[in-house]
Structure formats: structure tokens, C-alpha cells
Amino acid sequence: MKPFVVDSVSFAYQGDAPILQDICLDLKPGQLTVLLGGNGAGKTTLLRLLSGQLQPTVGRVMLGSLSIATMSRRMIASQIALLPQFEAPANQLSVREVVALGRVPQRGWWGPLSQQDHRVVDEALRATGLDGVQHRGAGTLSGGQRRRIGLARSLTQQASIMLLDEPTSGLDLQHQHEALKQVRGLVGQRAVTAVVSLHDLNLAALYADRVVILDHGRLLADGTPHEVLTVTNIRSAFSIDVRVVPHPVHDAPLIIPILQ
């Protein structure tokens, strides 16, 4: 697996104040990194920089010996899967057809699906609980189901790096955990590098190997859930008082808001 490094990256749109400032990260294979931070902290911008959709104002994002800025879109897509926070539904396609689009970086736009491609699509549909609706129009499904379509498509891409922007948004409790268990499984089984933005601190505590907190575009904390999810860091990033106690079931911190 190639090292994936954020090297002193800052980003600003022309004429605007910086959104991210001097971010340094070494993202490792076999590690699930969760990005946390308040609204506007820079999580989505960082994921877009990691995927090559945006280019740093200062610094660089390196995949192995190559800067992402020098790589073609197809080369990036063959190695990096991005699930954006918002995407337009492909209403004219079936669920299965949308999920199968994840195979495009491997086979190109015009090549027919191979037996292996079909197996990968079948596995992704089962993993996300969409096999029973695979022949329905994608536009007929609920918002939560469409979110699962995006996750399934990312799974079929079989990239070595997965970038997921709020993958649990709009999902019920069961499917929030199912989605993160799927990512957790890929990280363990295939040594995938996964970077996931979340708003739920307790989901981050349960599933992350590593937690990164962004605060107004700067790196506030970086480490294990136990190291990062502290009262001080949470108060600084989210302006809320909490108690952090041991989880009664899992080896993870449990964050309890203190309501005034």
C-alpha cells in the first residue's frame, strides 16, 4: 500500500479567508480515521483535497511518490473512492446500475461487466442491504436508501483508499452501524485506508482507530479515541460541556452532553 500524506496543506478560495491552515497527516493503510469538527471546521474541504477535487493553496497531498495534483482523474479513481455528502440521484438508472458505476475506473465506461464485476456488485448490494431493491429505480428510494446506494458504489470501486463524507447522514440507527461496520471490515480485511467525516462523537469513539478534530480550519487534536475525545478538546471544538466516561460495553469513551 502506498503512503498517503497531507504535507503542510492550507486552502482558501480566491480572495477568501483560509478554510484550512497547515494540516499535516500521515494516513496509514489498515486504519480508520474519523474527522470531527463543528460545522464549517473544514472536514468536507479536507476530503475534497484528499480526493483531488480541490488543489491546495499551499502544501501538497502525496500518494506514494506522486502529488495528487499531477494524477489523472482515472488514475485517482482507480485508487481513491469518494462518497460525497450530497450528490444528485441518478433517477433514470436502477439501483444495480448505479452501484455498478463503481466498476468504471477498473473497466472503463464502455466495457461490459465481467463475471467478477457482477460478483463485486452483488457483494456490495448484500453488504448494504439493497439486494432486495436492486432493480428498482434509484430515484424511487428514500434518502437513507440512496445514501446506502452511494456507499455500495464506493464498495464496488475496491479502491485502496476510501473517503466518506458523512456516510451515516440520513440513516437510521441500524444502518448507521451497518455502514461503519462495512468500512471497519474493509479496513481490517484489505488494509484499506479509510477517512470518514462524522458528526456523532460516540460513533467515532466506537469505530475509529484514529480521531482527528478540526477547529476553524486548524488541527486541534490527532490520536486514538481515548486520547482525543476529552472534555477539553470537545469543549474547544464544539462549545459544549460534556462528561466522558468509560463505555459500559465496549473499550471506548462515552460522551454525555451536560444540558444546562
Which properties best describe this structure?
alpha/beta, Rossmann fold, 2 domains, four-stranded antiparallel beta sheet, 34% helix, globular
CATH level-4 homologous superfamily of the largest domain: P-loop containing nucleotide triphosphate hydrolases
Number of domains: 2
Count of extended strands: 12
Beta-strand content bin: 25-35%
- What distance separates the N and C termini? 48 Å
Radius of gyration: 18 Å
Alpha plus pi helix count: 10
SSE arrangement, N to C: EEEHEEHEHHHHEHEHEEHHEE
Overall 3D geometry?
globular
CATH topology of the largest domain: Rossmann fold
Mind summarizing the main beta sheet?
Answer: 6 strands, mixed
Average residue pLDDT: 90
Name the structural class. Answer: alpha/beta
Helix fraction, binned, reads 25-40%
How does CATH name the architecture of the largest domain?
Answer: 3-Layer(aba) Sandwich
Given as residue ranges, the uncertain stretches (5+ residues, pLDDT < 50) are none
Report strand order across the widest sheet. Answer: 6-7-8-3-9-10
CATH class of the largest domain: Alpha Beta
Q: Could you characterize what this model shows?
A:
It is a single chain. With 260 residues, the protein is α/β, with parallel strands linked by helices. It has two domains: 159 residues, Rossmann fold (3-Layer(aba) Sandwich); 78 residues, no CATH class. It contains ten helices and twelve strands. The protein has a six-stranded mixed sheet, with helices on both faces. A hairpin with a 2-residue loop joins strand 4 and strand 5. It is globular and about 55 Å long.
